[in-house]
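Re: [ENG-882] Designed sequences occasionally contain unexpected residues at chain ends

Forwarding the minimal case from QA. Structure tokens:
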């Protein structure tokens, strides 16, 4: 296998404060029991991404690198009207439906395969964007860049990574620690992110960056 081509944008992050931002690794998006509508390729991609998220989290923790968690939390008494409209639901249609993801009080909201440790920041969000109406910008104050991982690439990862860039952060998306139900959408989202708001890299690079940062502090 050829060595990866050096990227000066990634090299420029050395010695600057960063954080790992994990997005929505919850049962509604990651547990096979909730993904019966997804074809085998999509389920395999999600499972592989969850494993890679775990590796990124382990690398961050072992290197003393901050981990911040975004969690979708849907309140049954407070619908998101624009989302319901987009999905063709009228004001008189029952909501939440059984397939509504990450509703408070249901199994879907729980972390899956990986989760926050004591003391790690958890940010509850109501929409796709981890910054919209949340404390995330404040929680990341003093951070100059974020590595983003989680689910799904074409929805909450796309929106949150793009918003991080808009908020002035340098963004690295860990492609192998993200997935979409449709792998083609995953690839398309990475192309959009890589064009407009992020450097697309992987967990191996992130783990190496964390190790190098730790070595530089000793």
């Amino acid at each position: 296998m050829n060595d990866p081509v050096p990227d000066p944008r990634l090299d420029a992050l050395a010695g600057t404060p960063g954080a790992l931002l994990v997005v929505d690794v919850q049962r509604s998006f990651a547990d096979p029991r909730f993904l019966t509508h997804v074809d085998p390729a999509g389920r395999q991609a999600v499972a592989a991404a969850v494993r890679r998220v775990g590796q990124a989290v382990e690398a961050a923790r072992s290197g003393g690198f901050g981990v911040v968690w975004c969690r979708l939390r849907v309140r049954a008494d407070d619908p998101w009207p624009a989302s319901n409209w987009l999905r063709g639901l009228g004001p008189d249609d029952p909501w939440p439906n059984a397939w509504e993801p990450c509703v408070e009080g249901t199994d879907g909201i729980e972390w899956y395969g990986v989760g926050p440790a004591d003391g790690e920041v958890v940010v509850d969000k109501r929409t796709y964007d981890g910054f919209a109406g949340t404390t995330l910008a404040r929680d990341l104050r003093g951070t100059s860049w974020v590595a983003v991982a989680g689910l799904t690439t074409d929805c909450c990862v796309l929106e949150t990574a793009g918003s991080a860039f808009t908020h002035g952060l340098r963004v690295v998306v860990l492609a192998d620690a993200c997935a979409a139900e449709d792998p083609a959408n995953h690839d398309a989202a990475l192309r959009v992110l890589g064009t407009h708001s992020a450097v697309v890299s992987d967990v191996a690079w992130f783990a190496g960056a964390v190790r190098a940062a730790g070595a530089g502090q000793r």
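QA comment: On inspection the terminal residues look reasonable. Strands lie at 18-23, 66-72, 121-125, 145-151, 170-179, 199-201. Proposing we downgrade this to a documentation issue.
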